[in-house]
Specification:
With 267 residues, the protein is α+β, with helices and mostly antiparallel strands. It contains 9 helices and 15 strands. The longest helix has 17 residues, at 227-243.
């Protein structure tokens, strides 16, 4: 949950739903330093682990899976091998390791191609489904089919230092964030998976009506310029970014229903 930013946003947006007791939000965050910043209230809880939670209706994760540990594999003349970190003088480098299983949908790979594999992400989803069998699991993240990742020539690995994207991710360990674009196929292979874009998900849940309402409120109150009017205008501009098919709108939304939940549409 980090410092609780998403929880604050949901709290503001939920409004009357919170007052009616229709939503309880449990923030799961391992770091004590982050939890100290979490918002508090009768509908908000903060825990270091979900292991002790009882009833859960929805497990929601935003850009979590791309931050879990991943492996890198490479296609060689003798098949797929793991890539391991070794040293070459004072520098860290990637070298060929043990034989690896063929990644999902990687038949088009050529010698020298590299791909990420995500056993930790698959295990995280599986563990949530085992732990909370009646809950719907919903995950937003960067993701793309393996065929697309192959065309990116390694650019599926995203590394940032001081908020600037860098390519020397093996230098100065601990100084940069390292994430990946998730391969869609191994997550899609988990039983019950449904996949759609963020734009489709948000439209299915009524964002167009919220935007239209924002336009009406702005039109009626723009001459006042009060906080309500500014929020209404922000709703419109923020929705454009969230729905942009070349940006955030193309994020993947993976969902798995609980035992008695209706299955979401697959796209």
């Amino acid at each position: 949950a980090g410092p609780g930013t998403l929880a604050r946003t949901v709290t503001v947006a939920a409004g009357a739903c919170l007052d009616a007791g229709a939503l309880e939000w449990v923030m799961v965050e391992r770091a004590d330093a982050q939890r100290r910043h979490h918002p508090t209230g009768p509908h908000l809880w903060s825990v270091s682990s979900d292991a002790d939670l009882d009833r859960v209706d929805v497990v929601f994760a935003n850009e979590l899976l791309d931050n879990l540990g991943f492996d890198i594999v490479e296609r060689t003349e003798r098949g797929w091998v793991e890539c391991r970190v070794a040293t070459d003088g004072a520098a860290f480098v990637l070298v060929a390791g043990e034989a690896a299983e063929t990644p999902h949908s990687a038949d088009a790979a050529r010698v020298g191609d590299r791909l990420p594999t995500v056993p930790a992400a698959v295990e995280w989803v599986g563990e949530r489904r085992r732990r909370f069998p009646d809950a719907r699991v919903v995950v937003f993240d960067y993701a793309a089919p393996v065929t697309d990742l192959l065309e990116r020539d390694g650019a599926w690995l995203r590394s940032y230092r001081d908020h600037v994207r860098v390519h020397d991710w093996l230098m100065q360990p601990g100084s940069c964030d390292i994430t990946i674009d998730l391969p869609v196929e191994p997550l899609a292979a988990i039983a019950g998976a449904s996949i759609e874009t963020q734009a489709d998900f948000l439209r299915r849940h009524g964002i167009d009506a919220l935007v239209e309402e924002g336009r009406r409120l702005w039109s009626a109150s723009a001459h006042i310029g009060d906080l309500a009017a500014l929020r209404a205008r922000s709703r419109v501009t923020e929705a454009d970014a969230l729905l942009d098919p070349t940006g955030m709108g193309a994020f993947a939304v993976f969902s798995w229903p609980g035992r008695d939940s209706p299955r979401a549409p697959a796209r």
